[in-house]
Specification:
Blueprint lengths: L1 H5 L5 E4 L4 H11 L5 E4 L6 H6 L1 H14 L4 E5 L2 H11 L6 E3 L8 H7 L9 E5 L6 H10 L4 E5 L15 E4 L4 H9 L3 E4 L9 H9 L3 E5 L2 H6 L7 E3 L4 H13 L1 H14 L5 H17 L1
Parallel strand pairs: 1-2, 2-3, 3-4, 5-6, 5-8, 6-7, 8-9, 9-10
Amino acid sequence: MGGVLKSKPDDLLFLWGGDLPVFSFLFSRLLFKRRNILGQNLILHKSNVEQRFTQKIRYWVYKWALRTKHFHMTVNSQPLVDFYSEWFGCSKDRFFVVFDSMTLNPTERKMLGDRGNRDEFYAFCGGKEQRDIDGFLKIVEMMPDVKFKAVFRKNDLPGDYHPLKNLELYHDTTREEFYRIMAGASVCLLPLKSTSPCGLSVAQKAMLMGLNVISTDTPSMRTLIPNDNYGFLLPMYDYDGIVNRIKELRDNPTFRDSQRVKALERMDLFSSENVAKQLGDAIKACYCK
C-alpha cells in the first residue's frame, strides 16, 4: 500500500496482479486519499460470487470502485467489456482490452519439428482450471476410433474413472512434458465448465504450435477464435457437436491446415510487442482522463 501513501492525486497507480488494485482503492478511500488506479486483468467468477460470502464482498468493492471515475481495469477479451459493465452496472470506459501475451520459448519451438509430418492423428486435452473432465471422457468413449492423450491431476479425475483403450492419460507432468505431449497432437480439445476466463494459455500455446483448437464458447475464447476459420467454439456440454468437429478436422486435412495457418497468423495480436502497445495505450488513455 506504499504506492497509495507515496503517490499524489494526479499520479496514476498501475497495479499488476490479483486484487491489489481494488485493495489499494479501498485503502485509499479509508484514508480519504483519492488515487487514479489502473489494474491489470480483472477475473471474477460469477458462480463464485453466488456461492461464497467472501466473493460477494469482493464483488461489491469492485462495483464501488468501478462506478467511480478514478478506477479502471484491463480485461483480456472485448466481450468481457460488455459482460463486466453490465454485471457491475458501470460505464464501458472503465475497461481497456489488453490481450494475454503468449510466445513459444526455444524448447517449445524445438518440439514442433516438421508440422506437416505427424506420425498419427490424436486429440489432446489438459490443464486444471475449470476443465470439463467428465465431458472429455464422454467424448473419448463416443469416438473409439480416435486416439486421445490427456494430462490431468489425478485428484481431478471422477471417482468412477476407468481406463479407456483409446486414451493415454498422464498425471502431474512437468510443464515441458505437458507441452511435448500436446505438440504432437493434431487437435487441442478444451471442453470447459465455466464462462469465466480459463484455458486461455493452453489454447494460445496450441495455436502457436499449429494445433487446431476445439473449445467451449466463452467470451475470452471468442477473442482467440472469432469464427470457424480459426478454430471451433461450441456451447457448453455440446458433446455431439465436439465429436462432429473432431471428425471434420480428421477427415479434411486441407481444411485442417487452412484453419491452423489462419489461427497462427491471428496469434500476432498476442505477441509481446503488440500487447505492450495495447498496455501503453491503456495507461496513456487512463492517465489523460
